[in-house]
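Appendix B. Raw example, untouched.
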Amino acid sequence: MYRCVALLALASPQEEAARLAERAHIELGARVLLDGRDVTEEIRGPEVSEAASRVAAEQGVRAALVAKQRALIATGDWVAEGRDIGTVVAPDAELKIFLTAAPRERARRRAHELGADPEAVLAEQALRDERDRTREHSPLAPAPGSVTLDTTGLSLEQVMDRIVALLAR
């Protein structure tokens, strides 16, 4: 959702990001739809990633998107991911997992996904992580009662197996 608002903000820099967040119609599923348009790939670009971190620091954007996220989660059973899902959006979730990995591993994965230089991704990631950890509203931190799962060196299948095992407990 934050990436969608970032995409809107990049296209309309004169508009307040909070107002864009309030008006945005975001549908999540196998594809991400923004105001009826499939933006699944577009929101994964480096410029959108950087902008998403910036708009996520704005309290008005956070308030609008937290309301949308809570409304969505209230419609049924969801698996939700995001930097404040367990701390702000769904603090009473049945299972909260804080996924982490070594910075170089995260950068390697992201660079592979984007076809980008791993060192450049690592540098951008460090800035984004620091901004997210130190922001005033909803800083990046494990939720109370969450299980930390370090995915360094694990395949996607291994991560999924560990999450399924946590659900089965």
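End of appendix B.
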